[in-house]
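Predict the structure of Very-long-chain (3R)-3-hydroxyacyl-CoA dehydratase.
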Amino acid sequence: MAGLLSLLKRVYLSIYNWAVFFGWAQVLYFAVKTLIESGHEHVYNAVEKPLLLAQTAAVLEIIHGLIGLVRSPISATLPQIGSRLYVTWGILYSFPETRTHFLVSSLVISWAITEIIRYSFFGLKEAFGSAPSWLQWLRYSTFLLLYPSGISSEVGLIYTALPYIKNSEKYCIRMPNKWNFSFDYYYAALLVLAIYVPGSPHMYTYMLGQRKKVLSKSKRE
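Done. Here is the predicted structure for Very-long-chain (3R)-3-hydroxyacyl-CoA dehydratase.
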């Protein structure tokens, strides 16, 4: 019975990883194609559907960690996926004025390359039990450039959205109301920006530690 459950787990995770890999491959293809042919102003419209699907599918990774399906620590998974979902849905989807900004291109290309490498790495590990050493090196090295470019794009787009958030009052809850509760999305966005200040260096340091541990182990083997 344990063997069957283990097999089902590997089959499920393999299908999940390759399905999301395909989504991010579409994002990268459409982003680069549109950037070359039409310019950065049209990139979001070209990638919107696969971007929303692929990024939202990452919610399952949080669930996988919570139920013990994978060993990834929730403390590392949750903030990274949470920030990306916030930018995807809370900024780009909610405020169309931000979609023509040049940072959208650097954002989706940074995200897509990162995730294509990551999901193919885990997809191969689940399907065949291992992944090529060159792919492992890419998995634990490309973030050195792609994490700063992705994070900078996230912060830049949130900052760009601030005046639109303030003027629209979208998602705001004003008093009085039956819940006796108020919420201002503009100040929530400022809080998110503030969290990036300690959060980004912390995540980068964590990933550097993971890189050193994994690649050192690989050399010994």
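The longest helix spans residues 2-37.
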